[in-house]
Amino acid sequence: MKEIEIKIIKSFLKYKNEKTFINKLKYILKKEIGFKLFTLTVMHPNNKFVTRIYSSNTKAYQVGGEKKIPNNYWAKVTLKDKKSFIGNNKKQIEKYFYDHRIISDLGCESILNQVIVFNDKTIGTMNLLNNANHFKKKHLILTNFISKFMIPIYLNHQITMRKQ
C-alpha cells in the first residue's frame, strides 16, 4: 500500500465530521494532484440534478447550488456508464458544461470528474479543475481510491434530499 493511501485511510478513520474529512482530502488532493477548483456534487435521488455539497471557491460555486443534468456525452459516460471523465482543454469544457464561462473565468481549462459509485449507481462526482492539459489517467488512480471513502458522505446527503 502506498504512503498516500495510508494517509487517506488514517484520515477517514479519525475524522470527527464530514467537514474535517473533506478539508483533509482537499489538502491531499491539492498536494498530490493540484487544482484551482475542487467541488463535490451529489446526485439527487430523482436523477434530474446534482447538488453541490462542497466548493473550494464558494463565491463562484456556492454550497447548495444545483445543476441540471445535461443530456450529453459527459452525462452518459459519468452517470450512466459510471466512468470518470477527464476533459483537458477549453473546447471539451465548452462542449459539455453549460457553466463553461464561469470555469474559464476562474482560469480553468481542464477537468477531472471522479464518479462516486454505490450499489452499481453513480451517486455523485468529485470534481477537480485546473490549467489546460493538467489531468492524467494516473490521477484517476488516487481519485478512484478516495471515492470509496466518500460513499457514506454522499449517501447521507441523498437521505437528506429524500426527506426534503
Briefly characterize the structure.
The protein is of the alpha+beta class and 164 residues long. The protein has six helices and six strands.
Element layout with pairings:
Elements: H1 3-14, H2 18-32, E1 37-43, E2 49-55, E3 66-68, H3 73-80, E4 85-87, H4 90-96, H5 100-105, E5 110-118, E6 121-130, H6 137-163
Antiparallel strand pairs: 1-2, 1-6, 2-3, 4-5, 5-6
Helix pairs in contact: 1-2, 1-6
Detailed description of the structure:
There is one protein chain. The chain has six helices and six strands; from the N terminus they run ααβββαβααββα. It is of the alpha+beta class and 164 residues long. The chain has one domain (3-163): 2-Layer Sandwich (Beta-Lactamase). Strands 3-2-1-6-5-4 form a six-stranded antiparallel sheet. Helix 1 packs antiparallel against helix 2. The chain is globular and about 40 Å long. The termini are far apart. The relative contact order is 0.17.
SSE-based structural type: alpha+beta
Q: How many strand units?
A: 6
For CATH, the homologous superfamily is named as GAF domain
Please tell me what the overall shape is. Answer: globular
Q: If strands are numbered along the chain, what order do they take across the biggest sheet?
A: 3-2-1-6-5-4
Number of helices: 6
Q: CA-to-CA gap between the ends?
A: 41 Å
Q: Could you tell me the radius of gyration in angstroms? A: 15 Å
- Under CATH, the topology can be stated as Beta-Lactamase
- Percent in strands: 15-25%
Largest sheet: 6 strands, antiparallel
The CATH architecture assignment turns out to be 2-Layer Sandwich
CATH class category: Alpha Beta
The helix content is 40-55%
Order of helices and strands: HHEEEHEHHEEH
Protein name: GAF domain-containing protein
Organism: marine metagenome
InterPro entries: GAF-like_dom_sf
